[in-house]
Amino acid sequence: MSASFAAFAVCSAAAPVGNVHRVCGTPHDNQTVVHDMRAFNRSGIFKKIAVSRADETRYPVNLNFKLQNREEMAGVMAWRESEDGKIQVYGNEYDSDFNMTMSLPTGTFQVLAYGYCEDGDGLFLLYKDNYTFGEGDILTLDTSEATNRTDIETIGPDGESLCIGEGGNCEKGNALNMMFYEREPLFSANVVLFSDGQKYVLSNNLSSSLNLVRYQLMVSGSKGVMSMAIPVDLNKSRVGSTATGWQQTNVNFSHTPLNDKIDNMLQELEGSPHNYGFIQNILVNTDDMSLCGILGLSIYGEGAQTATGRISMWSPTDYVPPVTPMLAPSGDVLFGPDSWVQSMPIRMGTDGLVQSGVNMAFEGYMTSDSTNIYYNDGNPVFSPLIPEEIMLANCAPSLITAPSVTGRFQYSFTGRYGENMNIDACDISDGMNPEILEQLGGNPNSVLVTFNGETVCDNLRDLNSGDPWDKDATYTAVIKTDNILIDKEIAGQTSGTIRYNPVKNFSLPTVTALQLRDSGGKISDRLKSGADGILSLYASALTLNANEKLRYGFYDYNPVSNIKVEYSPYSLSHTYDVWEEISMTAHPSADYTPGWGNCYEGTLENIDKPAPYGWFALRITLETADGASQQQTISPAFCISSLSTIESIADNRDEADDTRTEYFTLQGIRITNPIAGQIYIKRQGSKVQKFIMR
User: Fold this and answer.
1) Strand runs (DSSP E) across 523-658, as ranges?
2) Cα–Cα distance between 36 and 30 in angstroms, integer?
3) What are the helix (H) ranges across 285-426?
4) Do the Cβ atoms of 601 and 516 come closer than 8 Å?
5) 474-503 per-position pLDDT tens digit
6) What pLDDT was estimated at residue 670?
7) Can you tell me the distance from the alpha carbon of 105 to that of 655, in angstroms, rounded to the nearest whole number?
8) What pTM does this model have?
9) What count of other Cβ atoms lies within 10 Å of the Cβ of residue 132?
10) pLDDT grade for 428, boundaries at 50, 70 and 90
11) Could you give the C-alpha distances from 152 to 34, 135, 179, 216, in angstroms and in order?
12) CA separation, residue 116 to residues 122, 130, 198, 600 (Å)
């Protein structure tokens, strides 16, 4: 794998949304990356966890660690119950030299220390009950007291023991350990595994009110992604998953043109594509389906894309952990989460895996309201759908624009099945060698913001930085992506223009989802006839707000004042002169917040004009009462096969298409990005010649 693409990030599951702790890992000698331990202390998210008082007097704790050979202390926490029944949690900190420190008020506490033994092969838990602390006291923690051993075995759906590393059947994994006190999460700590590790727990006599749950994620090119929620009974010598009780599905993604170009380049230079995927693991409180935290696991190397396609999940039938995991896999990734195509989160259900119908754009903002961050079943239009045989991102997506925390705006895209499609909306030129990017055809995405005809911003890197946009006048932003190839042959494009005054109307109208359904209610943008199709979209005027107490942002959803939807037969050049309107009607019974807003529907039965291979473009215009607007063109947006005028793209070479240039090796293999200095066959229209690429 090329070093220019080798990067990954892991998010601590316990960090608050809006301030997620990200750690870039470098493997230890034994290829196990250990990450820090974080305490849960967000008042309101859990019923009994309270933030420690800011006005109380604390004193430094003299920590005395007695460690055995190859052991590492990861964290210490103390807690006590206050008069109102809340649990006040105090965690350790680090000084400028990364030495562990801790401070406590005087009183009696329960104490738990957590760490790793044998270079991460296992972990230890040390518990002290009724520890009375006074100013200047010493807290001694001796790992030799942890004599109870519990082995954790991971058995996959085929009955094989899952093993990472040389000779193993998995390439990578993630072990997230969560400790609960009376069903309330105290802390979590995760370890990214490149070799076998975290296979056992050493403990002393823990309180019966303390419960450990292991959330294990294993990745295999042939087996896919396997997620296990394993309750660890420390009174037993062995616990783990079993071969029965697994729920499974497939999640398949279409590649973007830029991904294919990079794959081809690396195939020619290094003999293999870059193979980079990403899994987001979302932890949800089962009591109210509120968010506990998020962590990610990057997947790269051979089999990465195969791994993200197959999803398997397991938990014991006789035990429901107070926190349940959801998996949100991504397709081909260039630079991590900013460049992914991501499915909706998937979790275990009564009869099989179910999809959470939440809008994954803009991190947690779209899933939140004024009281909490929810990852529940979400919009029922999306929640029952598991697209097992569907190719996600095989479409020209709809554009989402929304206010950002900087007072400007942010954007993303969504596909037909609610998938989040950043599709490399990051400033690619900032992360890739400009010469290589130029060889690949340049940046397929663009953003341009103007004010009074002058450029304010012309790249995403500067979109939310630099001089303030504070003029009491209209700003215009044009956003476009060409990084779309439908059915591996149809060039797609989504472009949008937003106009707003950041002083008077920073409530942005936007499409949050676009769907088409056939007469049987099935989601599909490939229809037999216009009479068979219903166009459904969600739209809202978004206003950014914040819950200051819990430290997260959320959107308020307001109706747009005007909506207009038009169609036109698809053009290879993505230019359109004639549009005809589709009558849209509000469908309030399907309105849904957070995440989506107001639903509108219209029938396609009046569309009767033929189109190239049956494809049509859409133009959607939205306005707010105070003058903000968004207009986007989705080209193409849907297909009506009965109106197709030709069989394939090759049969429709208009004048613009005749100027298209294609490159082939001397053996006749088509090349999407020829390399300078190499000899190729170039075909432009009907003209064919052999030449050296300059």
Assistant:
1) 526-527, 534-547, 552-558, 562-569, 580-582, 585-586, 598-603, 615-623, 629-640
2) 18
3) 304-309
4) no
5) 899 999 999 999 998 899 999 999 998 888
6) 63
7) 79
8) 0.83
9) 9
10) low
11) 18, 40, 16, 10
12) 6, 25, 8, 54
